[in-house]
Prior knowledge:
583 residues; alpha+beta; 5-stranded mixed sheet; 23 strands
Amino acid sequence: MPRSLLLALIVLVAAPMVLLGWLTTSTMRTRREQAERNLAGLLSQRLNEFDEEIQQRFDRYVRDLSKTLSSRSNAIALLKDMQRSEPILRTGIFVSADGLMLFPQRPNEADADALLLYSALSAMVDARPKSKAAESSYDVTSGSPQATSDGKGKVVKNGRSRSFDPTQEDATQEIADRVLQSKGGASAMQRTAPVSIENDHQWQVWYMDEGAQLVLWFGRTDGSAVGLLLERSRWMSDLISILPDSISSDAESDDQSPGRSSGFTALVDETQRIVYRWGDDIDATTQPTVSRDVSPPLSSWQLQYHAAGELLPSESPVSTLSSLAAVAILLLSLGAYVLTSVQRQMASARSRVNFAGQVSHELRTPLTNIRLYTELAESDLQKLSHDESRESIGRRLAVIDRESRRLQRLVSGVLEMIRDSGHRSGVRRVLVNPNELIQQAIEQFEPGFAAVGISIQQDIQSDSQVMIDPDVFEMILVNLLSNVEKYAGAANGIAAGQCRITSRIVSDQLVVTVSDDGPGIAPSSHRRVFQPFSRLDDSINAPSGTGIGLTIARRAAERHSGELKLVPSDRGATFEFRLPIEQ
């Protein structure tokens, strides 16, 4: 099998396989991504259900505490009773209509923790939500408090309330800061966060060293307000109690829920610390598969689901590989069919070439006989006495001889064309004189040159016996002279010129040059003239020919281990061929 056909077959099979494999892989990846998105949507829906349960817990706080507050009109006494009876309440806050915190009272300065909490409560009161505009008091992006106006000529910044006059200071705040500095701690009042506002109650989120603190504010008809600071440990315990406490309780509700054994669900606080988790006992080092923020007031908290591995099991490649194998077999069968057809056509072409070779060899016999009998007839003419008969028969025999030589050249050219390029066999070297071969060729073309006005100029300096193949030498020289006759004569629209033939022996080579005064060959066409069936002028007025003369001449020179080339010249065309000789 030829290497080029084998490579073509490999490309024919490999290229579609690569394309099909890429398309299949891309389709499978797209389908898997879509399935993962769908599953993530189911997991997010389950997280939404957990968030709704958390919101129901906070709504219950609002209902229960608002019901208790509405039972008595004395707010301060009621707050004192609620601190003793309500575990969820850490401390109550009562603010008068003019913004003064009447409850709780300022503790003894000896009690640093109480004083720290009181300072924080004072800051909470200053920054408490009064309208929906107060929701912008927290920079969600940076997590740091912003300076906002409380609507009463004060600026709240970093949990501290300052009037517009920078020379005035809140003495209570300064005392609290001095106590903190003496303990080496950070300020208890750090920042405020957006709060939810629903009907007659409002949530406030305040961050202290413990973390997020929730304050529930209720407005009163007289313009005063009651705030309830919830106990962080208590409401966290209540939230954990409503979340699943085992894998089975969560998995039974939904086969696709985050509580399945493939991972775990976690409630994380504002610092991304896990507060509570349920599901598999695996490391939480990876990023959550799905997550969502908890609704206000715990909007800084998140519900997260961490998958133990891939959401979907890996697909088996057996079916895909089977399909690709089937396509590969089909392509191989198609390629084998195409290759067989090409080989069949090549075999047919070789048969036709062999036939042409056989026919050419058969034509040699009658041509040889024609030449033999022509020579005998010329010999017999010497015996005739009548001059006219002898002259008439001589002309006819000259035509027969000229045409037989032409047929012989054509047959030799056909044989040369069907030889393998560069084939060195078939050379028959004999001891000959190159000058005699050149003179014989000139004698053949003298009548034709005379008819088109071409004169021959000779400079042959190869008068010695050398070992060459005379048939190869004659084939090359005859084809070159034939081109001169066709393209450099006066009949082609140019002035009559000369055909110059030179020969010499240089070292171990016979060098022959044939040049003319014709139109010449453009430099861009120098290589193309040696290609088979290539004609530089295909017009109607162009000389007839097949375009294989120079191809035959070059192949003959190469078969003799020589070369034929076109030499650049100022006028006309100049060809030079070299043949190795053995003297």
